[in-house]
């Protein structure tokens, strides 16, 4: 009888520790965001949004990515124009990602865009992959 009571007690203790660990993990869940855009000037409000969410989320603010797709990738070669966007994005912890498929379609050489920009093979696929990981997503 003592072994049964001790066994039930240990089982209850293990179960409650598992619940506490699960709750603790849930409390530290970070909020991740991704925005798909076809217009470079939209980077300004995207960055402002990231700053507001970072303030609102506090320690829960995670990753924030802005994916640029479409014909607008041709404008990425204007490194002077992109400089201020890149600086503001870095300050706001926003990663600017470029669709490699769009670069190929509109004949933009990867070497002609600022090196701070990350190029992925397919921006739309990248967006979906992030959504599958739980990122909150919006397309502009």
TrEMBL record:
Pfam families: DsrE. This is Sulfur reduction protein DsrE. Keywords: Signal. SUPFAM superfamilies: DsrEFH-like. Residues 1-21 form the signal peptide. It comes from Christiangramia fulva.
